[in-house]
Design a protein that fits this description.
Blueprint: E1 2-5, E2 9-11, E3 16-18, E4 22-25, E5 29-31, E6 34-36, E7 41-46, E8 54-58, E9 63-67, E10 79-83, E11 89-93, E12 100-104, E13 107-111, E14 115-116, E15 119-120, E16 124-129, E17 132-137, E18 145-148, E19 151-154, E20 167-171
Antiparallel strand pairs: 1-4, 2-3, 4-16, 5-6, 7-10, 7-20, 8-9, 10-11, 12-13, 14-15, 16-17, 18-19
């Protein structure tokens, strides 16, 4: 199923591009010729730094950082992606139910699912457009997962979309 949002604009340093086909991803999807389905293990890289920075969850501190490698000690770069009812996604750090990517306000952390009025800080909406993939928590007033000052943050809901809002999702293959 594809849901379209006609309101987003991507602004980069050279021009403004109107995206008329922002698609909500609500089922298994293909990314660079690789199939990503419910239960797949993936890594997330900010699109501007693909292969140089990875989203890493620290399960002991319940924090999320960007790190330069998927090799030890950065074991939290392994995320299990789960498809929920309603076409939302949960991102379990290292496959642990109690350590999911959570977003609330401007903060991104690891947390456990807690339902609040049918919305959940650990359920994410995944979108794709001509620029790539974007994520936002299901909370009504949330912004996009973005890169700011070297950290993963949630932008304000009405902030313009830039290259820092795009993420590369790749199947996780442990680096030996």
């Amino acid at each position: 199923m594809v849901e379209r949002d006609m309101s987003d604009t991507l602004i980069d340093s050279h021009r403004m591009i109107r995206f008329d086909d922002l698609e909500r991803v609500t089922a298994a999807f293909s990314c660079d010729g690789k199939w990503i389905a419910n239960g797949a293990r993936v890594s997330f890289s900010p699109q501007e730094h693909v292969g140089h920075l990875y989203l890493d969850g620290n399960v002991h501190a319940s924090t999320v950082h960007l790190v330069p490698s998927r090799q030890a000690p950065f074991t939290g770069t392994n995320w299990q992606i789960r498809l929920n009812e309603g076409g939302t996604w949960s991102l379990l750090n290292q496959g642990q139910e109690a350590r999911m990517l959570a977003g609330s306000g401007h903060f991104v952390s690891l947390g456990k699912a807690t339902l609040i009025d049918s919305f959940d800080t650990t359920r994410w909406l995944l979108y794709r457009d001509l620029g790539g993939f974007r994520l936002r928590p299901c909370m009504r007033d949330s912004g996009w997962l973005a890169l700011r000052d070297g950290q993963a943050v949630l932008t304000g809901r009405d902030e313009p979309v830039t290259r820092t809002h795009y993420w590369t999702i790749t199947p996780f293959e442990p680096v030996v």
